[in-house]
Design a protein that fits this description.
By secondary structure, this protein is mostly helical. It has helices spanning about 5-10, 20-35, 45-50, 55-85, 85-105, 110-125, 125-140, 140-175, 185-195, 210-235, 240-260, 275-305, 310-315, 315-335, 340-355, 365-395, 400-440, 445-455, 455-465, 465-505. Helix 4 packs antiparallel against helix 5 and helix 19 packs antiparallel against helix 20 (about 465-505). It starts with a helix and ends in a 22-residue tail after the last helix.
Length: about 525
């Protein structure tokens, strides 16, 4: 090997310039808006119900259609970006998202709002795979890349927390449609600055997108997510079980099809790479645990402590702050410490944060415990998510970074849906059993049924009963709910400790990230 070749082989990868960091700011705003729209609708539901008068089924579709389509299309959109250009896909998605947001804001019927939310979901599915795969293209220096991924993770976490707060503020002064306008100026800014600050990258040797595989991927994920959500809402029954089994069957066909294709949507042989599969599993279980925390907290704050929706949303800020702190610490840790230690320790810290919730009681002292649990859990999970994301996408060939990002975010969506279904079912079962035992004997049968169904139903029915009986019903339901919260926290904490042990064992042979990370196999196309 010549001196020139040796120098080239050992040269450090180029460091990002001001242009890349400005580009990261643009990508971060897009990620923030995408995450906000997963939660911003919830506070507007009462006003939407009053003005558009949707049926119960239409109301559920308004809430769920965005997340359904995002989850179902992440892998396909990631693959499409690899083929046609990641920047091109992101900018097209931004334009579609802005237009759909305007349609949603000024919807005059339930059908129009559902259709608008569906378009937003399709456009939103371009954001995660495009933004993260572009980060891998823009930041070739390993430590700078980890910092950029940490910022990206913090933006997603902050978006989920800020969404309800901004929504609540807007609803104080404007009509319900205003909550959808938050993303319009941000996406417009992305369309203006994106071509100037973001590079273009696509796989020059990519084949055509296999439409049959894309449809199978969408159907498999939608069926599983739908089934899990139905179990969380209505309990176990034949329909959601059939949906999950059908989705898994389609998923098996999808995997077989990918092994046969010359240009698959995702190379399933990536699962043979220990860093890829173990990180994907840890990410999945980490989101499962986090959902276990958030699942009962909103109801506890509003229906047990009696806080307003906006004040309750403000109590989600400690979690966002914790993620910002954890995401800032993560890049300094993951290049010095082996992944097995980072993952294992992070999940163990998250388990401790979850276990803190076991001490929550009926009085307002629970607020401090919730804030403490939020911060501890977020500080533990942030390095886990940052490192898992880097290992998942970094394990894939550069030309498949978008598809790998889609798989990463799909695992998070499925982890959240499974967490809601399993932990929600566990908590609901205990709640219903305890309420049945604790209700006074003189409560009317219809009122008792409503109280056993949900805490919200119990509080509503208690207000319509005579004071003494109503107070007894409310107290019985609140005590049962707090006991259910304790059980869910304990199960989630045990799950997190088990995940800590499993991830530490699975990643024990993976070295620290101090080695230079490989850049794209081909040079990115010059920005226009």
């Amino acid at each position: 090997m010549s001196v020139t070749e040796t120098t080239s082989a050992t040269a450090a990868p180029p460091r990002a310039t001001r242009r890349e960091w400005i580009g990261l700011g643009v990508l971060t705003l897009a990620a923030l808006v995408y995450a906000m729209d997963l939660t911003v609708l919830n506070l507007a539901i009462p006003r939407i119900s009053e003005e558009l008068r949707p049926s119960s089924a239409q109301l559920l579709w308004m809430i769920d259609i965005y997340g359904f389509l995002v989850a179902g299309l992440l892998i396909t959109m990631g693959t499409l970006g690899d083929r046609i250009g990641r920047r091109k896909l992101l900018l097209g998605g931004a334009a579609g998202f802005a237009l759909a947001s305007l349609l949603a804001a000024f919807s005059t019927s339930s059908e129009m709002l559902i259709a608008s939310r569906a378009i937003m979901g399709i456009a939103g599915a371009t954001v995660a795979p495009s933004t993260l795969s572009l980060i891998f293209t823009m930041f070739l220096d390993p430590k700078q890349r980890s910092t950029a991924i940490g910022v990206w993770v913090a933006a997603y976490s902050a978006g989920g927390a800020i969404g309800p707060i901004l929504g609540g503020i807007l609803l104080e002064f404007f009509w319900w449609g205003s909550v959808f306008l938050i993303g319009v100026p941000v996406m417009a800014l992305l369309l203006v600055l994106g071509p100037r600050t973001l590079p273009e990258y696509r796989d020059p040797n990519a084949g055509k997108l296999h439409i049959g595989s894309a449809v199978m991927s969408l159907l498999a994920i939608l069926a599983v997510v739908f089934g899990l959500k139905q179990i969380a809402q209505d309990g176990v029954s034949a329909m959601p079980i059939a949906a999950i089994v059908g989705g898994l069957a389609i998923g098996a066909l999808f995997v077989r099809e990918q092994l046969r294709l010359d240009s698959p949507i995702i190379d399933v042989r990536l699962f043979r790479i220990r860093a890829f599969s173990a990180s994907l599993g840890t990410y999945f279980l980490g989101i499962f645990v986090m959902v276990g925390y958030f699942l009962f907290i909103a109801q506890y704050l509003q229906l047990v402590l009696g806080l307003s929706p906006l004040i309750a949303a403000l109590w989600s800020l400690p979690s966002a702050i914790g993620f910002v702190i954890g995401s800032t610490i993560a890049p300094k840790v993951i290049h010095r410490v082996r992944p097995s230690i980072v993952m294992g320790t992070g999940m163990a810290i998250a388990a401790i944060g979850t276990a803190v919730l076991i001490g929550v009681s009926l009085d307002e002292s629970g607020l401090l415990l919730i804030a403490l649990a939020s911060v501890v859990m977020a500080i533990g999970l942030a390095p886990v998510i940052t490192l898992a994301t880097e290992l998942i996408v970094g394990s894939a060939p550069p030309e498949q970074a978008g598809a790998a990002t889609g798989m990463s975010e799909t695992s998070a969506e499925l982890g959240g849906a499974l967490g809601i279904a399993i932990l929600g079912s566990v908590g609901t079962a205990l709640y219903r059993a305890e309420v049945a035992d604790k209700l006074p004997a003189d409560v009317p049968a219809a009122a008792a049924d409503a109280a056993r169904d949900t805490l919200g139903g119990a509080i509503a029915i208690a207000e319509s009963l005579p004071a003494a009986i109503g107070d007894a019903v409310a107290m019985a339901a609140q005590v049962a709910f707090v006991d259910a919260l304790h059980l869910v926290a304990a199960v989630a904490a045990i799950g997190a400790f088990i995940t800590a042990a499993l991830s530490a064992a699975a990643l024990r042979s993976v070295p620290a990230r101090s080695e230079p990370a490989g850049g794209p196999a081909t040079e990115p196309l010059a920005a226009d």
